[in-house]
Amino acid sequence: MKLDVNAKSMLFSNTSIPDVFFTEYLSMASGNAIKVYLYMFFLSKYGKDVKINDLAKSLALDFKTIQDCIKFWEDLGLITKKTNGYTMNDLQEIELNKLYSPKLTASPEVAEKIEKSKYRAKAIETINTLYFQGVMSPSWYTDITLWFEKYKFDEQVMLALFKYCFDHSALHRNYIKVVANAWHQANIKTFSDLDLYYQKQEKITAIEKKIAKKLGLSRQLTEYEKAFIEKWYIDFGYDFSIIEIALKRTTSKSNPSFDYINKLLSDWNDRNLRTVDAVQTFLESMKQKQKDIKELKKKAGISNYSGRQYDNLDSLYANIKP
Questions:
Q1: Which domains does the chain have, with CATH numbers?
Q2: pLDDT tens digits, one per residue of 86-124
Q3: What are the pLDDT digits (tens) for 148-182?
Q4: Integer Cα distance of 226 and 91 in angstroms
Q5: Residue 257, burial from CB neighbour count under 10 angstroms (0-12, 13-18, 19+)
Q6: SS3 string of 218-278?
Q7: What is the pLDDT of residue 308?
């Protein structure tokens, strides 16, 4: 892309980026997205038309990458597509609108609670000091205040939320919202709730590792397999001692299936089998039942019993040693 600018004037000129770019958008953008935005910002200062092919050549990026980066900034409202190019929107105006627009919808009661909440204000300032080096953008104050109202977190939980995202190198709004929604769905409001949630997650992780080891899986469990395990532990209330019984019943299978294990555990849950003894007693009864059926079929002269297909829950227990 050719720039019709005197070389000497470019040597002594500067391109100024508002600080809000660094406080609001830098952490959520990829390296290529930042490169594209800065170069487009630079070109806009000289009133140059922006063409994707020219950007690709100038920045040594492929066409698709340039498109994706521009789309990223468009979605955030920093760039607007025109008929014959793009407009770089005013960052400070965008943040000013974000800062005041939410307050217009807040009720007087909410505003009064915010004003009176000294602990909440202290928590927000602590977040500013610990995770933004004391230069947190004003729009963050509004967002955090609204999150307090939306999720009903106490101050310690809000601090823990930012610490969690900071420790995972993802201190941007989208990631924070995902984590906050997950905690909210887990009915977390106080730090005690969060502590119990962490304990539960640690137990689930431990069970996941034990199951993978017992099944000889060297790979990471998929999200669907983890969802099964979470259901067994949280919904059914089964600890590893009961889950292991189901695992043992896969030894006759060359490729153990989580779906098969889930059918077993779901059946035990439906039968209200809550202890190891209860499960073992049930399995013994099923073993005896299958033995009796075999004897009856043998006396009746019915062959190929061992070749029957599993078509219901009872058949899950056929020809399997406990």
A1: 7-89 (1.10.10.10), 106-189 (1.10.10), 195-317 (no CATH)
A2: 888 887 777 766 665 554 455 566 555 555 567 788 899
A3: 989 999 999 999 999 999 999 999 999 999 999 99
A4: 42
A5: exposed
A6: CCCCCHHHHHHHHHHHHHCCCCHHHHHHHHHCCCCCCCCCHHHHHHHHHHHHHCCCCCHHH
A7: 45
